Amino acid sequence: MSVIIRDGKFHQDDWMASGGSFHDFDAMPLRPHDFELDHLGIDVPNSIDPNSLSGFVGEVSAIRIPFPSFADGRGFSIARVVRRMGFTGLLRAHGHIICEQYPLAVRAGFDEIEISDELARRQSEALWADALARINVTYLERLQAGMASAAA
């Protein structure tokens, strides 16, 4: 089983429970017309050139990107490019993401994180919520806030 993290809280997988399914990107036809698009998700490898997803951006409702290791950040780059292409559907990271990476995942465009039950036991919901609360505490934002107050 797995745990979905959305808005800093643990959830069940509502998308899958409502009939959604993920299909291997490499097994998909060039245009996914044969699928019910409201519930069509694709699993893309984290080694993919994000530009190869351009034909799917308006066709699928979810994209899931794997993180085989917390040290492998390629998924963040893929997410950012997919969002810049105009993808507005569900963007889910899955695998070994740690709570300290949650703010980066949100900034990259991920809506949800899917982690194992084991990882959820080691990193509590409170840790994920705390990580999300720190999302606006970056050096640049503190610097800009200081510059704005100095100008006032």
Structure description:
By secondary structure, this protein is an alpha/beta fold. It has a seven-stranded mixed β-sheet with strand order 2-1-7-6-5-4-3. The longest helix has 13 residues, at about 140-150. It is built from six helices and seven strands; from the N terminus they run ββαβββαβαβααα. About 30% of the residues are buried. It has helices at about 15, 75-85, 100-110, 115-120, 125-135, 140-150; strands at about 1-5, 10, 20-25, 40-45, 60-65, 90-95, 110-115. The model has no long low-confidence stretch (mean pLDDT about 85). The protein has one domain: Alpha-Beta Barrel (TIM Barrel), CATH 3.20.20.70. Helix 2 (about 75-85) packs parallel to helix 3 (about 100-110).
Question: How would you describe this structure in keywords?
Answer:
152 residues; alpha/beta; TIM Barrel; seven-stranded mixed β-sheet; 6 helices; 7 strands; 33% helix; globular
How far the N terminus sits from the C terminus, by CA atoms, comes to 53 Å
* Integer-rounded radius of gyration: 17 Å
- Strand tally is 7
- CATH level-4 homologous superfamily: Aldolase class I
How many domain regions?
1
Report the structural category. alpha/beta
Topology, element by element:
Layout (H helix, E strand, L loop, with lengths): L1 E5 L2 E3 L2 H4 L3 E4 L15 E4 L18 E6 L6 H11 L5 E6 L6 H7 L3 E5 H6 L2 H9 L5 H13 L1
Parallel strand pairs: 3-4, 4-5, 5-6, 6-7
Antiparallel strand pairs: 1-2, 1-7
